[in-house]
């Protein structure tokens, strides 16, 4: 696997705080064109100020950058912060196209994206949580057990077939540089690139049960596995589909159902299939 060392992994919560502080204002954007959409506040979906229109610079071509994120009312502030930071730091913001995955269509959430970013190119897709429901094992943190956390495993089946490369981003980060740089990362023929961290003790991501079962542990034979963060991934979607990576990750989730081989949620099966490859 090709890994991309980036500072994107752990990101500023400051911006999230800033956004929540301004989230109650309705419109009055500075500099941007106002469309005058004023949404009714609901108990669930916060109101966001309309973002200015971000336009392409003169040197832009029309190559699309495809970004996938999950979408859900609970993490909407994070999504807004991520999208805004991406547009702000992009030379060619109009080239960025978003593919949002949600477990159920929430019209308020979609309307909120539309009114905050009236010019955003985005589509919302439903991720059928039944695909994963029976496969999720209880982890040490309940938040990790939400079906939407597992949507990244299925994104290759969900986004349009003509999308060949995608950047998957968690909704708890902000970008501090141009997404185009990440988009252009050389995958060196590998299926996926992610920020890798080799100073963690890899043994600890799996249980004694795993390491003591030779037939399981041998999966890492000939590999030099390191922890990697599945919150920022560049995926060759074609390779993912052809290599049936969704099924390979699912197989490990099925093993976990039989025998507790790890403690965390959706990360360890990714490590099992891809770490050190
Ligand atoms: C990593 O953790 C395991 C289990 O806790 C321990 O046995 C091993 O010595 C550790 N390795 C290093 C390099 O610290």
From TrEMBL:
Keyword vocabulary terms for this entry: Glycosyltransferase, Signal, Signal-anchor, Transferase, Transmembrane
Protein EC: 2.4.1.-
Membrane topology summary: Single-pass type II membrane protein
Gene3D superfamilies linked: Spore Coat Polysaccharide Biosynthesis Protein SpsA, Chain A (3.90.550.10)
Family affiliation: Belongs to the glycosyltransferase 8 family.
Protein location: Membrane
Record has Glycosyltransferase as a keyword: yes
UniProt protein name: Hexosyltransferase
Metabolic or biological pathway: Glycan metabolism; pectin biosynthesis
MF GO annotations: glycosyltransferase activity
Predominant location: membrane
GO terms for cellular component: Golgi apparatus; membrane
Signal peptide: 1-25
């Amino acid at each position: 696997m090709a890994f991309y060392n980036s500072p994107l992994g752990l990101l500023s919560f400051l911006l999230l705080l800033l956004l929540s502080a301004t989230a109650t204002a309705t419109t009055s954007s500075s500099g941007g064109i106002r469309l005058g959409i004023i949404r009714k506040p609901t108990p669930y979906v916060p109101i966001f100020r309309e973002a200015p229109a971000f336009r392409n610079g003169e040197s832009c071509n029309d190559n699309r950058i495809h970004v996938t994120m999950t979408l859900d009312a609970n993490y909407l502030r994070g999504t807004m912060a991520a999208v805004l930071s991406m547009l702000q730091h992009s030379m060619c913001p109009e080239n960025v196209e978003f593919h949002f995955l949600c477990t159920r269509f929430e019209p308020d959430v979609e309307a909120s994206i539309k009114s905050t970013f009236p010019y955003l190119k985005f589509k919302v897709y439903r991720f059928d949580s039944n695909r994963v429901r029976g496969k999720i094992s209880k982890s040490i943190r309940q938040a990790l057990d939400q079906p939407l956390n597992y949507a990244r495993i299925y994104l290759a089946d969900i986004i349009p077939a003509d999308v060949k490369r995608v950047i998957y981003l968690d909704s708890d980060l902000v970008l501090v540089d141009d997404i185009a740089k990440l988009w252009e990362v050389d995958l060196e023929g590998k299926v996926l690139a992610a920020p890798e961290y080799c100073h963690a003790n890899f043994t600890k991501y799996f249980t004694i049960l795993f390491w003591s079962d030779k037939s399981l542990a041998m999966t890492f034979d000939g590999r030099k596995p390191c922890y990697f963060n599945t919150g920022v991934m560049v995926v060759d979607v074609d390779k993912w589909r052809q290599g049936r990576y969704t099924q390979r990750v699912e197989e490990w989730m099925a093993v976990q159902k039989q025998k507790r081989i790890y403690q965390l949620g959706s990360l360890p099966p990714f490590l099992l299939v891809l770490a050190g490859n």
